[in-house]
């Protein structure tokens, strides 16, 4: 696809079909862009705008409005607790809050910038200059191994390049109808799942939650052709055969954000008649490697670099590994779809790239003779993938240590049949400080951070295993 003008300029706004449906409300393309233009009128000139990223049509309108006005937006998870929200707002420098104020903000004492409501019925005919390709479109907060989440700066150019590469790989056209119910504050649900559909011009049906019955209903009622899910979603669909069978008429079932277990791949194939298409990406790079619509679908393999992306796998000395499908090395990426660095973190930004300009993904991978990639795992065990969400052990440990009765905490990801990994915290409590029970500590984290970052399990221990240097030996905890 060519990219005249804005991100969405290639598609005619007079398309009479409903362009985006979220739950049971939808707007045609012309209505959607007129409502978004009304938002652009309000936010134009702001340095950064926070968007309350609940799974609603107002979020879609708010995001679009910021993109049209050329104002960087930061999606804020609707359930992010006061600690996480305060960090995102302070760090990003957002001066406006688009959408409803966050639940409980009056009680938790959190500071939210000036609230601008989003009205799906508002219309404006204003048009705005196309934002420069290199300007920041979005700041996406993402976890590192330690500390608070970092804001990844994503440009208009990166969005266009990443989405066009995927559209080409998947033969994604306006004749498709995309269905998913993923959260609207990450690459998967928001960038691919909303902006992708709007850039291509294919209608989007967002089911608000990624539940099997919702996907099945959207297949039947809306004639969905493409379905997006994280592996947990696909495994839950496979566990509900009637819902899975409703997807038989689809064109493409896509899995990403974490490794799809081969057993789920096979169950989905058997029930739907479609082998899932796997693709690999990161907040920092968008989706870089994918199985093509006409490509071989092998369980456990994520395919080839999309158009405009180069990938290499190197050993510890920086030399390319043999493309034998077995030799593991560090996956590095370059291409127009990569981010521009972490906001206000020059050192971490610099460390992310090699001297010769390749982004270090932190993932270990193999490549075979035909260029197919398999992701073997992450280099650091302190980044946990749970239900497709990336969670840094350090952020959860810091939230636990905020509790007055927690003396020490170590957080790990343990294998989980539903979530891929589940967050488990090993905690030493100080009974002199009042002590704390397992459930109380889980609730404490759920109250401070996004709910999905809470430990699913807390194990109270007398001491954490440490080496001679005093460092916690997480490998022993995992064992
Ligand atoms: C549970 N709940 C609580 C709670 N415990 N609420 C408050 N306090 C507590 N202690 C509530 C939740 O709010 C939620 O409510 C409900 O219980 C279920 O929550 P959950 O148990 O956390 O959800 P679960 O069903 O386990 O979620 C599975 C899932 C989810 C697959 C639906 O993990 C998910 O949406 N994953 C998608 C992640 C994703 O999009 N990643 C993309 C990253 S981008 P309620 O009412 O809301 O149901 C990326 C790039 C790439 O990785 O490659 O794509
Ligand atoms: P995030 O920044 O939340 O997008 O998480 C990115 C990480 O998710 C990557 O570094 C990988 O570890 C993991 N990931 C994404 N897609 C896949 C996939 N298809 N297979 C395995 N891991 C994946």
Essential attributes:
single chain; 479 residues; alpha/beta; Rossmann fold; nine-stranded mixed beta sheet; four-stranded parallel beta sheet; 24 strands; binds malonyl-coenzyme A
Furnish the topology, listing elements before pairings.
Layout: E1 18-22, E2 25-28, H1 29-43, E3 49-52, H2 57-69, E4 73-76, H3 82-92, E5 96-98, H4 105-108, E6 114-116, E7 136-142, E8 150-155, H5 156-170, E9 178-180, H6 187-200, E10 204-206, H7 212-222, E11 226-229, H8 231-238, H9 241-245, E12 252-255, H10 262-272, E13 277-282, E14 286-290, E15 304-305, E16 309-314, E17 329-335, H11 346-352, E18 359-367, E19 373-378, E20 383-386, E21 389-392, H12 393-401, E22 406-416, E23 420-429, H13 438-448, E24 457-460, H14 474-478
Parallel strand pairs: 1-10, 3-4, 3-5, 5-6, 9-10, 9-11, 11-12, 12-13, 23-24
Antiparallel strand pairs: 1-2, 7-8, 13-14, 14-15, 16-17, 17-18, 18-19, 20-21, 22-23
Helix pairs in contact: 1-2, 5-6, 8-10
The structure holds malonyl-coenzyme A (MLC) and adenosine monophosphate.
Describe what you observe in this structure.
The chain is α/β, with parallel strands linked by helices. The chain folds into two domains: 18-367, Rossmann fold (3-Layer(aba) Sandwich), CATH 3.40.50; 387-478, GMP Synthetase, Chain A, domain 3 (2-Layer Sandwich). It is built from 14 helices and 24 strands. The protein has a nine-stranded mixed beta sheet, with helices on both faces. Strands 4-3-5-6 form a four-stranded parallel beta sheet, sandwiched between helices. Strands 16-17-18-19 form a four-stranded antiparallel beta sheet, with no helix packed on it. Strand 23, helix 13 (438-448) and strand 24 (457-460) form a beta-alpha-beta unit. Helix 1 crosses helix 2, helix 5 crosses helix 6 (187-200) and helix 8 (231-238) packs across helix 10 (262-272). The chain is globular, with a radius of gyration of 22 Å. It starts with 17 loop residues before the first strand and ends with a helix. The mean pLDDT is 95. The structure holds malonyl-coenzyme A and adenosine monophosphate. Malonyl-coenzyme A binds next to helix 6, helix 8, strand 13 and helix 13.
